[in-house]
Automatic annotation (TrEMBL):
Similarity-based family: Belongs to the transaldolase family. Type 3B subfamily.
Leading EC class: transferase
NCBIfam families: fsa_talC_mipB
Record gene name: fsa
Protein's name in the database: Probable transaldolase
Keyword Plastid: no
Pfam assignment, any one: TAL_FSA
Catalytic residues in the record: K83
Pathway: Carbohydrate degradation; pentose phosphate pathway; D-glyceraldehyde 3-phosphate and beta-D-fructose 6-phosphate from D-ribose 5-phosphate and D-xylulose 5-phosphate (non-oxidative stage): step 2/3
Keyword Glycoprotein in record: no
Length: 218
C-alpha cells in the first residue's frame, strides 16, 4: 500500500520522508491556504522533497480554465499529478490531460458511480472521502469496498483507489484490509499509527533493565 501525506506543510513532509513513510503527497486548496504560501512555490518545493506523485488541485470550475490550470500545474515539476473535482468539466479535463500523458487525481468522490466515471475518464487516481461520508452517518469504508469491487471487474481500468479524508488509524487499517492501492494521511494520523502504549511501556522497562547492567553498546 502506498502512503501519501495529505498536507502542504513542507517541514512535515521532509520529516516524514526521512522516516521513509512518504510515497507521494496530496494537497488541496484548503491545505494550500493553511500553509499561507504561494501555491506554485510550495508545490515546487514539495516536488523536490518527494520523487513520488504530488497532487496539485485546479481551482477553476469551467473546462477551458481548468485545463489551462492543469497544464500550468503539471509544468511545475515532472511529478505533479493534477487534481480535478468530480464534475462534468472535471471529468472532461481528466480525459484531456490523461490523453496528454498527465496523471490526474479525481477528487471529491462520494459514490461508486462517480468512481466508475473517473476510471472511464482515464484518471490515475480516484479520491473517495471516507471521513466526510462518516460525518453524514454513512460508512465511508463501504464506498471503498464498492469501488474496489467494481474496478476489479474490469482489468482494463488502471485507476488506483486513493483513500482520502482519513481521520484515524482505523480508517487506514480497514482500507488496507480491502486492498486499496493508496491512502493519503494527515501527518497527525501517521504519528498515531506509530504510537502504541505497550511499545512505550516495553521500551521503558528494557532500558531500565539495561541501565542496571552498566554496559553500553558503543
Ligand atoms: O484528501 C482530502 C482531505 O484533505 C479531506 O480531508 O478531513 O478535510 O475531510 P477532510
Amino acid at each position: 500500500m502506498k502512503f501519501f501525506v495529505d498536507t502542504a506543510e513542507v517541514a512535515e513532509i521532509r520529516a516524514l520522508s526521512e522516516a521513509g513513510l512518504v510515497d507521494g503527497v496530496t494537497t488541496n486548496p484548503s491545505l494550500i491556504a493553511k500553509s499561507g504560501r504561494k501555491m506554485a512555490e510550495v508545490i515546487a518545493e514539495i516536488c523536490e522533497i518527494t520523487p513520488g506523485p504530488v497532487s496539485a488541485e485546479v481551482t477553476a470550475t469551467d473546462f477551458d480554465t481548468m485545463l489551462a490550470e492543469g497544464r500550468f500545474l503539471r509544468g511545475i515539476a515532472r511529478n505533479v499529478a493534477v487534481k480535478v473535482p468530480l464534475t462534468e468539466a472535471g471529468l472532461s479535463v481528466c480525459r484531456s490531460l490523461a490523453d496528454e500523458g498527465t496523471k490526474v487525481n479525481v477528487t471529491l468522490c462520494f459514490s461508486a458511480a462517480q468512481a466508475l466515471l473517473a476510471a472511464k475518464a482515464g484518471a490515475a487516481y480516484i479520491s473517495p472521502f471516507v471521513g466526510r461520508l462518516d460525518d453524514i452517518a454513512y460508512d465511508g469504508m463501504l464506498l471503498i469496498a464498492d469501488i474496489l469491487k467494481i474496478y476489479r471487474n474490469y482489468s482494463y481500468f488502471k485507476t488506483e483507489v486513493l483513500v482520502a479524508s482519513i481521520r484515524h488509524p482505523v480508517h487506514l487499517v480497514e482500507a488496507a484490509k480491502l486492498g486499496a492501492e493508496v491512502a493519503t494521511l494527515p501527518p497527525n494520523v501517521i504519528r498515531q499509527l506509530i504510537k502504541h502504549p505497550l511499545t512505550d511501556r516495553g521500551l521503558e522497562s528494557f532500558l531500565a533493565d539495561w541501565r542496571k547492567t552498566g554496559q553500553s553498546i558503543l
